[in-house]
Specification:
alpha+beta; 14 strands; Antithrombin, Chain I, domain 2; 9 helices; about 425 residues; six-stranded antiparallel beta sheet
Length: about 425
């Protein structure tokens, strides 16, 4: 596609931003969006889930941000301890590869790639997974081995029963440390109770410098058109440089590289009023089609400084997508985690912060799943149908004295 140089990015239109991990390309005239064959199922599924969640999180017109990777990481731990229909629903909604070995291998490869990117100058990229269980609660060794060895998670024991708030503070301290202080309360106050038995949490932290920074002296207040009838003045960054750019069907796409070229921010800019339709079509296939349109050219870029802070409960959106049994105390099957008492998911929340300025981007996300312990499944009731003559007695319990005794041969007599 031949880019139209005269058609610069207009100010004031709504935008959606995605951070894309590229598999090691260093050539600024291209961007690698096709994952290695062994990762295509996992990466594509994660983006498909993101596209399905977009219309279900927040209100249309609100700022929003969430981490598909952090969500997938916590769901993977839950799946590792699920069985039967519960496991199947988590796998389907998460778009996980059908082959469990492939799924776990994908996580290992991606964690390795994140670690490698973390070594690049101007880039900080780290993820962590943790599990906190009630002291003395019997968790299956196979499950704990999977968490440690396959998912790279740490296993900790706390006391939810006697001090749920203390346990929450411990987990929040871990989240704060692993997000460099960007998320201080991943576990909201009061969300853990003495009935909590298990918390699974994942953090993702990213800080990257632009390969081509914006000059702060070029930032000025410009109009941002919130809707067709309302606008606000915002600090708008600007620069003219060679970037990967594409356009089609009323949508413009810009790829802004971070230092090292291993990571880019893709900014999609639909025509005024068209962002909702664009979001509904966002998936792995559409992203690849868009990336194929990118060409290196000189672009006059206007991009507002922005900071998005968002917290979402994922429970209802995931239930609506088909992950129902995991949240149902009577049907959840997490016997892969523990055979002692049935576990079910009480809460599934994610907090995300994304901040963009002239130097680059800082973003963090923390996702946690809270498990409660349900009562054991009730066996069918025994039948006691007093439809024939019976005896009765009234007894004083402390002494054992029989106060009354009798027989009923005919209640109507």
């Amino acid at each position: 596609m031949k880019a139209n140089w005269k058609k610069y990015i207009p100010p004031g239109l709504a935008l959606t931003s995605l951070v894309l991990l590229s598999a090691g390309t260093t050539n600024s005239s291209r961007i690698q969006t096709t994952s290695p064959p062994e990762l295509q199922s996992f990466v594509g599924g994660s983006l498909d889930l993101a596209g399905e969640l977009f219309p279900k999180l927040g209100k249309s017109g609100d700022n929003m941000a969430f981490s598909p990777y952090s969500l997938a990481s916590t769901l993977a731990v839950a799946q590792a301890g699920a069985k039967g229909l519960t496991e199947s629903q988590i796998s389907t909604v998460g778009h996980f590869p059908a082959d469990r070995t492939e799924h776990m291998a994908s996580f290992k490869r991606i964690r390795k790639a994140l670690t490698a990117s973390d070594q690049s100058p101007g880039i900080r990229l780290a993820t962590a997974t943790g599990l906190w269980a009630q002291n003395g609660y019997d968790l299956e060794k196979v499950f704990l081995d999977r968490v440690r060895n396959e998912l790279g998670g740490s296993v900790n024991f706390v006391d939810f029963k006697s001090s749920a708030n203390t346990a929450a503070r411990q987990i929040n301290s871990w989240i704060k440390s692993n997000t460099q202080g960007k998320i201080t309360e991943g576990i909201s106050e009061g969300s853990l109770t003495p009935a909590t038995r298990l918390i699974i949490a994942n953090t993702l932290y990213f800080k990257g410098d632009w390969a081509s920074r914006f000059d702060r002296s070029a930032t000025s207040n410009r109009t941002f058109n919130v809707t067709a009838t309302s606008s606000v003045a915002v600090p708008m960054m600007s620069q003219e440089n060679n970037f990967l750019y594409g356009e089609a069907d009323g949508v413009q796409l810009l790829a802004l590289p971070y230092r090292g070229q291993n990571l880019h921010m893709l900014v999609f800019l639909p025509a005024a009023g068209g962002i909702a339709d664009f979001e509904r079509g966002l998936n792995a296939a559409s992203l690849q089609q868009w990336a194929d349109r990118l060409e290196l050219c000189k672009v006059d870029v206007w991009l507002p400084r922005f900071k998005v802070v968002a917290t979402y409960s994922m429970k209802v959106p995931l239930q609506s997508l088909g992950m129902r049994d995991a949240f149902d105390a009577s049907r959840a099957d997490f016997t892969g985690m523990s055979l002692r008492r049935p576990l079910f998911i009480q809460t599934l929340e994610q907090a995300t912060v994304v901040e963009v300025n002239e130097e680059g981007t800082e973003a963090a996300s923390a996702t946690h799943i809270g498990f409660g312990c349900s009562a054991p499944p009730r066996p069918p009731p025994q039948q006691f149908h007093a439809d024939r003559p019976f005896l009765f007695l009234i007894r004083e319990n402390k002494t054992g004295a029989i106060l009354f005794i009798g027989r009923v041969s005919n209640p109507n007599a």
